[in-house]
Amino acid sequence: MTVSTILNPATEVPIAEIPATDEAGVDAAIQKAATAFESWRAVAPGDRARIMRRFAAVLDDHQEELAWLEVANAGHTIGNARWEAGNVRDVVEYYAGAPERLFGRQIPVPGGVDITFREPLGVVGVIVPWNFPMPIAGWGFAPALAAGNTVVLKPAELTPLTALRIGELALEAGLPEGVLTVVPGKGSVVGQRFVTHPAVRKVVFTGSTEVGKGIMRGCADQVKNLTLELGGKNANIVFADADLEKAAAAAPGGVFDNSGQDCCSRSRLLVQSSIYDDFMAQLEDAVQSFTVADPGSDSAEMGPLISSDHRDAVAAYVAAGEVAFTGSAPDGPGFWFPPTVITPSSISARDFREEIFGPVLSVVRFETEEEAVRIANDTAYGLSGSVFTENLDRAMRVSRAVEAGNISVNSHASVRYWTPFGGYKQSGLGRELGPDAVAAFTEEKNVFLATSE
Ligand code: TAP
């Protein structure tokens, strides 16, 4: 059996050995989930809701444990990791409200009565990347379970520890065996089998656009339901009429949070020419005071990158770009990389076009609002973006004009579990979170009952 050695990315010290599931093991997990589906779908809505609320309570009791596990496995700062564990709890709690409110409709038709039902799909396969192991798992499994589906969940090979623990906590909370099964292993084996196994009726994939396209092609064979959350190259547009101090103070967090390993990272900064020099001076101060340190310390704003290979990939972009200034990072063991600001020679430079997924910010200037929107939209991606301005008309105009699923005005926050999240263009397909996520884990059935005159 293949075993993955899990490293702490801040120290490079091995912290666990996790067996990789082979294809027979994946098939057994899917079969178990298919069997559990028959009884889980039949659990009365109020009881399903109660079990999910209990699951949220158990997650709450273990928030601190889960957070420290993520610090060790993914190098997330403890502040972020606490938020992430709390987010899984909140998302489970939020969708615990859904089973009792999974309404159909009564539609007026001639000759009878017409009603619709929301029925669960069956087994749902959730494939999770390494950058946000806990929240992204929860965004898939919580609404899926609420709708009456069962879930097989594949964490990334590099970061399986919190998902495996959440699987144990689900059982402790009273979810029946087979309702939520965590299946660690390789994407090419476990993830691929979710795509090809006919009992898996929907795949929820979060990861790179390249792998996502392959999964979409694979799902086509069985016309399988699919949600894709893919990459991003998001623009932060700072207008001359913005509160510059606020915009400069917020920019580092918008791109360097989670070491830039964030599909919503505002990795393209567009600054209006008339304030460019002033803004860059303020940005330099903000970047240099951004604290990159032991992720377990309360003051850390950024930890290491996830792996040595990933650090090499990020470094290659920086070596090819024009570095304007950098922050600092610890020396010694750990996959550290300093926050780095690049001024690309043109908007066709690689660092300005490709998702780097590291702490690298590329800054360009623009003259007019139209030009800012044109540059922001000149990308295959469309996940998120920010607009900094004090002019409400401009804020609304630009928010509507940028082709992205999530825009923030005078803020970089993109994720709230109450609101829909997802991408335009090659950033994805479908939406997660928000009030409609449960519907994406159902088939809508229409029933017509003929009535006699
Ligand atoms: P990927 O390499 O695409 O991996 C994502 C997941 O897919 C991992 O669990 C991976 O498994 C699995 N996988 C790999 N090959 C597969 C295959 N052929 N069939 C099925 N599953 C397969 O991405 P990553 O490097 O982990 O994550 C970074 C990317 O995710 C970035 O592009 C980022 O923008 C994107 N991302 C998007 C979002 C949203 S919400 N849009 C959120 C976070 C991240 P193993 O790695 O374990 O082999």
Rg from Cα: 23 Å
The amount of beta strand, in percent, is 15-25%
Which small molecules are bound?
A: 7-thionicotinamide-adenine-dinucleotide phosphate
Biggest β-sheet strands, sense, barrel:
7 strands, mixed
Total number of helices = 14
Mean pLDDT level? 98
GO molecular function: oxidoreductase activity, acting on the aldehyde or oxo group of donors, NAD or NADP as acceptor
Active site: 229
Pfam families: Aldedh
InterPro entries: Ald_DH/histidinol_DH, Ald_DH_C, Ald_DH_CS_GLU, Ald_DH_N, Aldehyde_DH_dom
Give a quick rundown of the structure.
The protein is of the alpha/beta class.
Question: Can you tell me about this structure?
Answer:
This protein has helices at residues 23-40, 45-61, 63-74, 78-95, 133-146, 161-173, 187-196, 209-220, 244-256, 276-288, 308-320, 350-353, 369-377, 392-401, and strands at 3-7, 14-19, 106-107, 112-120, 123-127, 150-154, 180-182, 200-206, 225-229, 235-238, 268-272, 323-326, 340-342, 360-366, 384-388, 406-409, 428-429, 442-450. It is an alpha/beta fold. The strands form four sheets. The chain has a seven-stranded mixed beta sheet with strand order 12-13-14-11-10-15-16, with helices on both faces. It has a six-stranded mixed beta sheet with strand order 7-6-5-8-9-17, with helices on both faces. Helix 2 (45-61) crosses helix 6 (161-173), helix 3 crosses helix 4 (78-95) and helix 3 packs antiparallel against helix 6 (161-173). It is globular, with a radius of gyration of 23 Å. The model has no long low-confidence stretch (mean pLDDT 98). The site of 7-thionicotinamide-adenine-dinucleotide phosphate has 31 residues, from helix 7 and helix 8. One of its GO terms (molecular function) is oxidoreductase activity, acting on the aldehyde or oxo group of donors, NAD or NADP as acceptor. InterPro entries: Ald_DH/histidinol_DH (IPR016161), Ald_DH_C (IPR016163), Ald_DH_CS_GLU (IPR029510), Ald_DH_N (IPR016162), Aldehyde_DH_dom (IPR015590). The active site is at residue 229. Keywords: Oxidoreductase.
